[in-house]
Amino acid sequence: RILQEGMKKLGFEEFLGPEHDGYIITSYKYPKDKNFNFKTFYSKLNEKGLVIYPGKVLNADCFRIGTIGNLFPEDFHELLAAIEEVCKEMNIMLPIT
């Protein structure tokens, strides 16, 4: 829930509706901001030691965040802070609309 609520607060929209919530991975739509570029977004998070995944949905611009494994609340807070920082570095307006 920390991830889902945090991403929503930043303005990211889940790819699937709440009736399809899972606990292993969550997909998010790309922001419609003209400054968003997935490769840059991915690289900047990776430089901070964080890994997200490209979407695997045909004809849909989305990315995935895994939520399974030895993860703790502070891990999600770190990821959310990094996503916010990267969006600011990329001049993406938050919350994303």
From TrEMBL:
GO terms for molecular function: transaminase activity. Its cofactor is pyridoxal 5'-phosphate. Keywords: Aminotransferase, Pyridoxal phosphate, Transferase. It comes from the Eukaryota. SUPFAM superfamilies: PLP-dependent transferases. This is 2-aminoethylphosphonate--pyruvate transaminase. It comes from Magallana gigas. The lineage of its organism: Eukaryota, Metazoa, Spiralia, Lophotrochozoa, Mollusca.
